[in-house]
Amino acid sequence: MKYIRIFRFVLLFSLLTGCALPGLSAATPTPVSSYTPVPSPTSSPTNTVEPTATFTEAPSPTPTIMPTIEPMIAIANTSITLRSRPGKGGDNVGGVYGNEKVKVIARNSAATWFYIIAPDVTGGMAWVLAAGFDLQGDLTRLPIAIFPEGSTIPLLLPPLIHTISGTPLPLAPPAPDAQTATVTQLAKVRVGPGLGYMEMGFLEPGAVVVLTGRIKGNAWYQIDYPSGLEGKGWLSGELVKFEGDPETLQFFNSMATVVSGDESVPAQLAVTDMPGDTPIPVTPTPALPYGITLAQINARSGPASSFSSYGLIEKDQPVTILGQTLNGIWFQIQYQAAPTGVAWVAADYVRVMKSIKNLPYFNNDGSPLP
User: Fold this and answer.
1) Domain, as residue range, for 238
2) d(Cα 360, Cα 303) in Å, to the nearest integer?
3) Contact assessment for residue 124 and residue 116, using Cβ atoms and an 8 Å cutoff
4) Are 292 and 220 a contacting pair, CB within 8 Å?
């Protein structure tokens, strides 16, 4: 037994050290590089799929480069209806609850509606009224959604971005033949004609600005602004006093793009220009004064909020004024969608563009005064 234990010990030592036992030749290991694999069988197993042809990679199509849009979070401050398009004439396609978060990817040109991701809606997108949300980001950085003619799918355009380092340059003295206006109160200068465009600076009351353009209804004026984008900026028409002729100014649309012709009071006006809606024609009578809506308002059957609504008139729409209540709170306007062709709107939401002092007066029930 003793000798057996000694033999085992010697054998283990030999294996570990590679030394040969006395009387035995050490085995020469086969190098890995000299290993010849067993040839594969000519037939493949039934559960293995072998390629039968040599594949050539197909050429890739030219990719469509889309801009990367980083959604902004917005939190609903009340229950809000999802619409198929921007405007209350859009189809109701769902809703969100108060405090619910949504992802906003664009806005309309007036910045009154948000275009959001809506996974439960057909197409995955919807529109919501911007006033019903607290946007957790910079509104002016959102792309702008427009509808090409005949399309119900919005085209997203990049926002106008222009930043100024340091203090804006002072205004240049106006030329003798320039169209000028006076700033009536502290005014923000924006990169485009609307509250959805970024601010570039401020002008103090009394500042004299050179006007170079306008949009429909003279709601916004383009001015010479040395630190602005291409040396221009935009001021709200409510914040300046201009006694010249607006028709001499270049005409722009709400995207700050030059357009031909003066569309401030066209022969045929649409109450809404949203896709899919049938425009309700409103034909102004040139001899009568007109006004521009300052917000989306109801066209009512009488001069009070208790009267039924015929429909909505969008912001920045011209309306022909036919008369007013004795207290001046309500205007009677032309509205062809109404049974009588007239409707009533709250005067606080209409900027009068021509004197109304010669118009007839009405009682608070809408009946004409003698």
Assistant:
1) 160-264
2) 14
3) no
4) no
Helix (H, G, I), strand (E, B) or coil at 303: coil
- How far lies 223's CA from each of 23, 131, 180, 296, 315, in Å? 109, 29, 9, 27, 23
Helix (H, G, I), strand (E, B) or coil at 141: helix
Taking only the tens place, the pLDDT of each residue in 356-368 is 877 888 888 888 8
Confidence tier at 47 by pLDDT (50, 70, 90):
very low
Q: Mean pLDDT lowest for which of 65-74, 133-142, 326-335? A: 65-74
Residue 3: strand pairing partners: none
- 3-class DSSP assignment, residue 101: strand
Mean pLDDT value across residues 310-326: 86
Whole-prediction pTM value? 0.53
CATH number, domain containing residue 358: 2.30.30.40
Ramachandran sector of residue 93 (left: φ over 0; alpha: ψ -120 to 50; beta: rest):
alpha
Distance, CA of 59 to CA of 61 (rounded, Å): 6
| Amino acid found at 170 | P
Other CB atoms within 10 Å distance of the CB of residue 255: 16
CA distance 189 to 223: 9
Length of the chain counted residue by residue: 370
Q: Please give the Cα distance from 237 to 57 (Å, whole number).
A: 61
Number of folded domains in the chain? 3
pLDDT value of position 152:
80
What Cα–Cα distance (Å) separates residue 326 from each residue in 294, 359, 365?
Answer: 22, 11, 11
Residue 68 has pLDDT above 70, yes or no: no
Domain end position, chosen among 208, 230, 264 = 264
Residue 342 included in any domain: yes
252, two tokens: 């722009």
Is residue 237 classed as helix, strand or coil in its secondary structure? helix
Token digits for 162? 């222009």
User: What is the radius of gyration, based on Cα positions, of the chain?
Assistant: 37
| Higher local confidence (pLDDT), 321 or 6 | 321
Which of 204-218, 233-247, 323-337 shows the lowest mean pLDDT across its residues?
323-337
Return d(Cα 354, Cα 252) in angstroms, integer.
Answer: 21
